[in-house]
Amino acid sequence: MESLGELERAVMDQLWSRTAPVSAAELRDALADRGLALTTVHTVLTRLEGKGFVAHDEARPRRFAARATREEHAAGLMHEVLGQAADRQAVLARFIGSASPGEADMLRALLADNP
Amino acid sequence: MLPLSALLLGLLAFALAWPVPVVLGRAAWTRRDPLAALVCWQAVGLAGGLSIIGALLVHGLSPWGGSLPEAWWAWLRHWFTGAQPADPVRGDHWVAQTLAAVLALELVGVLVLSLVRTARTRARHRALLELLVDPVPGVDARVLESPVPAAFCIPGARPLLVLSSGMVAELAPGELAAVVAHERAHLAERHHLLLLPFVAWREALPVLPAADRAHDAVRDLVEMRADDVALRSLAGASSRRTLAKAIVAAADGGAPRGALAAGGGVLTTRVTRLLDPPAPLPRWARPLAVGSAVALGGGPTLLAGSYKHLKRPTKLLVENLGGAGIINKKR
């Protein structure tokens, strides 16, 4: 039995690799090697919709698509974690909070002065 | 008449709202022992809140009895049975009571709100990461595809340590291990909990410069503390330099440009204390810091507990000041 997280990742990988929206049945067929029931695919899609990663249209049957590309998600996450808002959100513990343009030079000089 | 302890609590609140954070924020010893400094900041935050609320409460309830529990009881009885207070209740007593309630609700409410919001953000980040990045069996770190060098952790029941692919590309293996040790230290010591109240109260009290100052100091101290803890788990004589090089490389590789005062921020401080470690504080410093912190936290409570039954004001003053950590510190 595969974990839900793993299934969600597999479904997202499918959606990310496609350009057009797909129906749940098509997804089940694409993931045939996992032997999923259609209801399982629907469960996973509903969960992903709840998390805001997937949207569906009003066609019949419904077709599903990723809301943003993998790269957009990664960039968005980095922006949130590193940006100005991160302080307010208590996204703790970025290794380097922020560096002003002059500071990097100053740090390199420090390193050179202390062999 | 204003009870003596309301006056003392008010003075303590003022000290903790202005001069104490200024002095503690500028003190050079804090970078020699970030942990002791973090303990002091927690105490300043807690005692600051307790003393200002305590001062208002003691004054507001002073007509009702000689100690807070007694006064509270009399006050409650008044609402249910109509029993009259010992002394006449004036308008300023009502104002003080109301202010105390509003302030207490705001401080606690903002803290809870911040806790909920942070938990939600973390859950979202974790969900995203779990989708974006395949886990490596047996490793609690994940590599996120992004050119910007970054390392961060998501605390919680199942903590997650994240490195960007840019960071991995930028750093030598030893430096990467130092970064991971640094982030692990944050998680192991639950630094997010130390920071949380200061994040919350900075938002609750935007007019108070001390809230800003305290937040920034705690944020920086937590980073220094994580450096110290990381060094313990890193082998080799040059681990200090390795960690310093990792900081410089990460800062160099296009970390976001925040607005930072010229003359160096926390990164400069961190690199300097890694390369040229300051002498550790004397052995008695840490117990003293913890002792003062406990006294600071307990002082306001004691003061508010019994405010009127004082036969000898001078003796009481000395005892209370001792309890509040004011006399202690000069020991």
From TrEMBL, chain A:
Q: Name one Pfam family in it.
A: Penicillinase_R
Fetch the SUPFAM superfamilies from UniProt.
Answer: Winged helix' DNA-binding domain (SSF46785)
Q: State any single GO MF term.
A: DNA binding
Q: InterPro entries recorded for this chain?
A: BlaI_family, WH-like_DNA-bd_sf, WH_DNA-bd_sf
**Gene3D superfamilies for the chain:** 6.10.140.850, Winged helix-like DNA-binding domain superfamily/Winged helix DNA-binding domain
Keywords (alphabetical) are:
DNA-binding, Transcription, Transcription regulation
Q: Name one GO biological process term.
A: negative regulation of DNA-templated transcription
Similarity comment: family membership: Belongs to the BlaI transcriptional regulatory family.
Name assigned to this protein = Unannotated protein
